[in-house]
Every structure is written in structure tokens, then in C-alpha cells.
Design brief:
This protein has helices at 2-22, 27-46. With 47 residues, it is mostly helical.
Length: 47
């Protein structure tokens, strides 16, 4: 579980960083939705 969360965290930072640099604020809500979906998937796998 720790390895998966670390990878997800790094992907979140990687997507969020360039989005700010480009000024694409529209991408931030999409990233939040993806993070929520990933969390739900983790909960399903753990359960």
C-alpha cells in the first residue's frame, strides 16, 4: 500500500506543478476528481 500511495502522490505533484506553470487552473478540479477516484479504488482494494 505504501508503494502505491507514494507513486500516486508523485503523479499528483507532477500533474499539479506544470498545470500551475501553464496557468491552466481549469485542470486543478479534474486532478482533484482523479485523486478522489484513486482513493475510492484504494478503499475498494483494501476492503
Amino acid at each position: 500500500m505504501n508503494e502505491k500511495t507514494n507513486v500516486i502522490g508523485s503523479k499528483g505533484m507532477y500533474l499539479f506543478g506544470p498545470a500551475e506553470q501553464k496557468g491552466g487552473k481549469d485542470l486543478t478540479p479534474a486532478i482533484r476528481v482523479l485523486e478522489e477516484k484513486i482513493r475510492q479504488m484504494e478503499l475498494m482494494r483494501s476492503a
